Every structure is written in structure tokens, then in C-alpha cells.
Queue: 3 jobs
Job 1
Amino acid sequence: MKNFIHKNGVFVQFDVKEKVGMKNLELLKVKNRSNKGEILSTCVSPYYDWELFAADYEEMMKTLKIFVYPDAFMSNKFSTFSSIFLPHTNPFDPKLGNYFSEHMFKIALLGSSFVTKKPEEAHFYFMPFSINVMRNHPRVHSASVIEDFVAGYTDRVSSEFSFWNASGGADHFYVYCHSIGRDAASKHQKLHHNSIQVTCSSSYFQRLYIAHKDIGLPQVWPRQHQEVVNPPDARHKLVFFAGRVQNSLARRDLLELWKNDSSFDIFSGSSSFPYKEGFRRSRYCLHVKGYEVNTARVSDAIQHGCVPVLISNYYDLPLANILDWSKFSIIVNERDVPHLKKILLSVPKQTYLNMYKNLGIVRKHLAWYSSPKKYDSFHMTVYQLWLKRGLHRVDW
């Protein structure tokens, strides 16, 4: 017989006769470098190495330069396609939903100190087209026309500017959250193979996503303020999930297996109470792959203090080279949905409390602001670019 145990943030199967060490679940000693000596942490750090990251982040803030192609600054009367490149006029419009992050990144970048007018000093070059705007543009909106438009724009950039040709586009990047954006680069080989796509649709299984080159973008719904979270003892439900089951075998299995369990709040479609309330009253909130591997549920759960349970194979988690997701979430293979309750109940109480505390630490990294703040989603995403700097270029 196989059981499950939580070992350092990862669930593994083991034989009941096997001795399982719990050493990794002990509280870790961390060194406080602010001359307060060594202290015992009450919360296993959600960072792989905070001090190394923080020092490199400060260097980025002083050094990084990004050149933005001039289409992002043109007058909206210049062309019928101007809106595709310009920043969104109302990024907190609730109708933007899952595509909010795409627009907020552009707004934050254009107003930041990273932008340079001297392309020769830039580490990276931003191609400012918006897939979400294209999807709603009367002359571009179909998937095939978007692919043609992006390929044509890339050809124009490479012919009018020397920066693209100096690196073959390897120091260029574009940003999107719209699902149609998955294939945006499909008709331009160098854009696909060389340039960096910063995307919410970050899945190893996606044919145009290249994990070692591309970057996962935190997907967040429009939110003006941080939520006040319920403490653990006010969370009386074990699990919450509400979402469409179409195009998802894992979601159908979840609903079929657990819809009648009183410790689970599982809904096909909308919940019978306000969506926010499900996150506030539950210990664990499920992220289950639907049509796409990505949704804003992960950031919603974190903002409301509900430990995310990620049931999405091939998901390249955002900020995964900085954040140790096993310290504030649970990652479960889709085939283990039948064992979900056993897995969650096997989490020791102190481990759950550590994860809950870590949500309060990392939530600032999964939030966008009208005026960007230190370590927010914008700065953390730009830091992912910073880590990819140093490409060799020829002189132009």
C-alpha cells in the first residue's frame, strides 16, 4: 500500500514500512546580517537565497537599461494601428481580467528609469505590440492575421534599426497574456527561436515556449489594493475551487471525485457565494489546468492567504529561479487528483503555518501598482530579464 508524505514541500509516495526522515521539515536557522546575530526563523524562507537576490536586484536597479521601439510613443492619430503599441488608457478596467498583467508591464516600463533613449547602452530592446489589443482590433483580430502582423513588424524593426541584426533578436523581448499570443511568433523563425517571450502562458508543453529562454509573467486580475487576509483559525474549509470544466480532464475528475465531500467547496462554474469568500475561508485553493495551464487563481489565492495547490503539469511557475514555491504552495501531479484529500491532510500543522506565513512575504511579488513599488510584479519580471543579460553583440 502506498501513502503520501510531505517532504520539504514536495509530496512523494512511500511504503508504510519505510522509515521516512522528517529532518527537512525542521525549522531552519537563518543568519540575520543586520548585526542582530543568529536567530531561529519561525518561517522557512520562501527564497532560495534572499541575500544573493537582494544584492543583485540592487545592482539591476542601478544598471539595467532597456530601449523601447518608438511605436510606443507615437500619437494615436499617427496610424490606425497605433493603439496596438500605445499603453492602455485604463488598465484597471475589470474587463481586462486575465490580460491585466500584459498592459501593466508596458505602463510600468514606460514610466521607469530603466528606459533609455540611447540604444547603444541598452541591455534589452522592447517590442511594444499588444496581443490583447490586437485580439480586439477590427483589422487584426484573427489568430492568423496577428501572426502576420507580428512577423511584418519584426521584419520592419530588423530593416529600419541595426539593433536586431546585432544579436539576431536574442536581446529583444515582447510581453503578452492573451492565449492567442502563444502562436504570435510562429511565422517569424528568428523571433520564435531567439527573442524572449514574457508570457503568462508559460507551459513546457506549449510548442512555442522555450523554458530556458522565455520568462513566466505573473498573471494577476486588476486589483487596486491588497486584501486583508483571514487568519488560519478562521479557515473552516479544506479546499476551494470554482471554474469551468470544459477542455480539462483534470477538472472533470476533480468535480466528479470531490463534489460531495463536505470539506471541499468545489463548483463547476461560479460558486454559490462571492468568489473572494471562497479564498478567505479555505486553507487550500486549487489551481487546476483548464484550456490553458495558467490562470490568475494562483495570485488570487496568495493575495487572500490561501495556500495554492497547483494541479497543472508542465507549468513553468513565475519567478521560480528566486522563489521556492514548495515553501508556500503544494504541487500535485494531475494523475493524483484521486489522492488529493490524503495529500492535503498529510501536511503537518507547522508546515501549513509556515506556508501561510510565507504567503504574506511573497504576495508583494505578485501584485501590480499604478506607481510600481520595489519588488512588485513589474520589478520581479524585469529581474528575470536582467538574469539573461550579457549576450555578445557585434558593433553597429
Job 2
Amino acid sequence: MLKYIYCDEIDLCADTVLATLYAAKKYIVPHLARACVNFLETSLSAKNACVLLSQSCLFEEPDLTQRCWEVIDAQAELALKSEGFCDIDSQTLESILRRETLNAKEIVVFEAALSWAEAECQRQDLPLSIDNKRKVLGKAVYLIRIPTMALDDFANGAAQSGVLTLNETNDIFLWYTAAKKPELQFVSNPRKGLVPQRCHRFQSCAYRSNQWRYRGRCDSIQFAVDKRVFIAGFGLYGSSCGSAEYSAKIELKRQGVVLGQNLSKYFSDGSSNTFPVWFEYPVQIEPDTFYTASVVLDGNELSYFGQEGMTEVQCGKVTFQFQCSSDSTNGTGVQGGQIPELIFYA
């Protein structure tokens, strides 16, 4: 801060930015405080989103708070499994557990709360016992939507964790199985999560009698966005001659570095619809940088392909730009080919 005041130079790094923001707020140096917030926004990821959420509330920075929630909602499972989640205060924990739009399985939320409770016991110098974990969680435990878990997750996880009382465990089992359901203190409505959006880059599709051949070759396209989004998967074409099963290896790269990939199967019904294939976790995409979306398909080679491709597509408040990729070895480009849709959260 003194360097900025005397030399008009701002030199921020991850290790000192929060302390610098605190000092800038305390001594009313608004330009430096804004620079700190901008630095935090650009370095925001699932690994640090929960910690930065806690700090943004402390520093009363609503824009940073909103950015943190965007990351936590879209990449909830990554955020909940991060080391930083265990470092948050109890008030931030409760706000996350209340969140209606968390895009996570409830068993992941439950396991994250237990990890936080273990860390809180250590902070309070309490023995790591089940009773103490329940004690430090307090009423926050009822914000975990245990009745909405898959029955297997509950029976093999939460029910055997020891954190629930025998009466609570019994009542939740009855909630799953009985016609007359008991009253529960736990929230019993599933979280709404996020609704995925789809960016469709072709104006039409077709098929031809001499087939679209795959043979292990890569279909690829480059894209950029003007706002931060989270790519959850691709919408892909299927067979044009009846139902068929496909194997798809999907991948997202930035400057040659793999950010996300998955290998999965999907069924097509013979229609020209697109069929979703998902990454394990949504991938954070920063604005004004080109990323490469790729797929290697294996299946019926008589399939649909896109035509009349667009170089720019407006999806809600997000603008996508497309350009050809040198990774594409199977004919896909801006004007036509595969990878008709990018499925994303924004």
C-alpha cells in the first residue's frame, strides 16, 4: 500500500492481495482496493471461491461476492471438495448449505460439511469425535438436504456416519419408504441447481449416403466467449439410419493444456436431435481467450452433420465466437461438421 501511495505502482500477488485489500479498505484507498478486487476476480476458481466468498462478505464487495457464487454454483462439487472450503467461517458455511442453486449431489454436500466440521474441531482444540463434529455443525446440519439423497448414498454414507441420531436415521429411512412420512427437521425439497444453456452453432443439419466417417479421427472447433461461462458438455449428433450407440471422447483445451475430458457412451434415436455428453465437472472458461473443443467418435458412420455454421452466436447475455481448429482432422470446421452444441452454465 505504501508503494502505491508513494510511487503510484500496484504490485499484487496471491499471497498478499487479501491483506492489501484489508489495508486499502481500512485506510480508504479506493483505487488500490478496486485493483485488489479485480485481481481476485481474475484469479477466481473452484479452489478458492469459498474462501473468497467469505472475504468478499467481510469486505462488503458485492461484485466479488456475485462472481464467487457463480463459480460455486456451477462448479459446486469441485468447490466443496477444495481445501479452502474447510477454512471458511460458520456463517459462510450456512450460506453455502442454504444455496438453492448448488449444482451438486447432496452426498457431496454432506461429506464436505463433515470435512469442515473436522477442521472446525481442530480450530477449537476439540477432540475429533463424532459428537464434537455434530456440536460444531450445530443447526447447520439441518440445511443439508439429506432426504433428497439417493437411497444408496444415504444408507451407505450419511446413515453410517454417526453424525445423525438414531431417531433421525430412522425417520429418514421412513421418509424414503413409508406411505405416511414423518416430519423432519431437514430440508426435504431437492435443490433446483442450475439450468444448462445450449449454444447451437449450425443453422441446419443433413446426412449423405456416402457417410460421415470417423475412424478414430478428431473433430474439433475453437471458440471464445465475452463473459465467464462454465462448459458442462457438448451436444452431439447421432445416427441418421435408426437408433445407435456411440462412444465419445470429449476434450477441452486452452493453448494445448487439457482442462477437461471424459469418455462416455450415448444413444441416438435416429433423429436429427443433438444428444448431451457431459464432462465430469463443468470447466471454467474465461472471456476473450480461444479454447479448443474436440471429440473423437466411434459408432455408426451414417450420421448427421451440421451445415451453415455461424462464426458468432448470441446465447442470452453471452456471445460465442467460432473459428477453425488445427486439431480437426475429420472435416469439422466453422461452416460444417460435428460438435453442433456447447452446453454451458452462465
Job 3
Amino acid sequence: MEEGGAADPNGKGKGESKDITISIKFSGRSIPLTLSPDSTITHLKSLLQPLTNVLTRGQKLIFKGKVLVDTMTLRASEVTSGAKVMLMASQGLHQGDGPILKQAQSVPRRVDNANNKLEKQQVPVDKNRLERWKATGVVALSQCNLKAIPDEVWACGPSARVLDLSNNSVQDVPAQVGCLSSIQKLFLNANSIMDESISWEALTSLKYLTVLSLNQNQISIIPARIGDCNSLIEVDLSSNLLSELPETFGNLHVLKALHLSNNGLKSLPSTLFKMCLQLSTLDLHNTEITMDLLRQFEGWESFDERRLLKHQKQLDFRVVNPAKFDEGADKN
């Protein structure tokens, strides 16, 4: 029997209890957590999801050789302060390729007492770099250990056609991105970008933007304004924290490829298949979207014909057997 009171929806008991600190062992890491002993195992799993990128239903917590039961509290499970709990993740239930809070991508902060602003990273200036970017139209800054987009990028203005900032620790996509008025491809993969740090108003002003890649970030909400980016041909939102997409995705009439793998999605916009009439690639691996659900969408048959045709032309497609739809949809 539990020693504490009944757990409330937040996992805490009615009476006050001194918080405990436990360590979660996962993928060679030790994740410290401080919470009430009257927290349920379900609540503990919900805290671990954004820290490990493993969906709650794919988590198995083991303590002293026993699997912890979701409905029980830490106290009832005899998990006390200093306890070490092992997390085992079910295959196929990861939202991404690893923990969100990667140590290599952690962003050190320093608060300036004078103006309380985040310290900007000082990036060595290559005098010839800006000229090279303007001449080629390609701003290549992948794997440069950046914490912010350098100001000299904005100086490229309409000369830039491609901006690659993948594999950095960039947090913000500011309004200045709108000055890159001729940009066609924007790669922001594997950074530290969250919902509130993207200027979607600026992105919608980029009338020539055809490729937007934001995989492996911390995005949980995609605003309806993405539907105004009506030149997009390919969108990659894989390995984020998305649970739904706005109906305005249907406004992307020239969209051909949409990558959504490793997210918590359970459905798709009802407008997707019936309005995106050029869509032929849809990656849904490691989501909760089922084949039964997909078959119910208006326009599914036409999409299925397009993706089969693309496969038959031996273009880049992710299906081994063209007779079956295997882009991540659960076959059960």
C-alpha cells in the first residue's frame, strides 16, 4: 500500500513530501531528476520524454530488477533519494536518434548584469568569406560550433541562395532572415531551435524558399503560418516533438516531399492529400499514424498512385516493396 496520499494529475500527493533526487541510466548517460516521492511512474515517464526523445509508451523503467508499474508512486515502488533507475527504450518508439539534450550541443549561457542579454558568440571573421558567399550564393556554416547566426550572413542579402547551418547550437532564427530575399534552401538541422525562437513571419516573406529542413530540433508546434510559405517543395520536420500539424499544410500546393519521422504524430491534416496534389514522398517512420487512418483521408488513392509512379521511375524513394506503403505507417 502507498504511504502517501492519492496522486493528483501532476503526480503529487495530497500531503507535502520532501522531494527526492534520482538518477536515470539511459544510453550511457546518467540523467538526474528531482521530484516528489508521491509522483507516479507515469509522471516520471512524462518528464523523461523530452530529455530522452523516447515516447512514454516506449519506456520501461527498471529498479532493483523489477519493472516499475505506471500507476504506482515512487514511494510505493520503494524508489528513494539516490536511487538509480534504468530506462530501456522499445525499438521504433524514439522521437529522434538520441537524447534532445545532447551534451555536445549544450549551449553555455552568461547573463550580462548590465542588460540581462545572452552573450553573443564571437566568431572569427574571414575577410574573404563574405565575398565568397556572395559570389557562389552558398553560405556554408555547418558544424562550426555556432550558438547564433553570424551578422555577416545578413550582409549577403539577396545574393544568398542556400544557407546551411546544420549541426550547430543555434537557438534563434531571427527576423533578419527575411533579408535573404532570394534564399531557396534553408538547412537548420540538429540545432537547439524551439517553437518561440523562429520568426515565422520572416520565413513566409521568403518567396523563393523551396526547401526547409528543421530536423533534430525541439519544435513541438508548427504555426498555421507555414501555409503561407507557398513555394515549399520539400519540408523536413523529422525528429522533433510534434504531436499535430495545422490544416494550412494543404496550402502548400507545390509540396512534393514531407518528412515527419520520429515525432509523436497520431494524425495528419485532412487537407494534405486532397490539396497537395504533387506530394509523392511522405516519411512517417516511428510515428503513431496507422495505415487504416491513412486510407480514410480524401485524396489518399491519388497520392498512392503518385508515390508508386515515382518508385517505378527509380527516383529517390524510401520503399523497398512498391506494392506496399511502407513509409512508417503502422500496418496494424
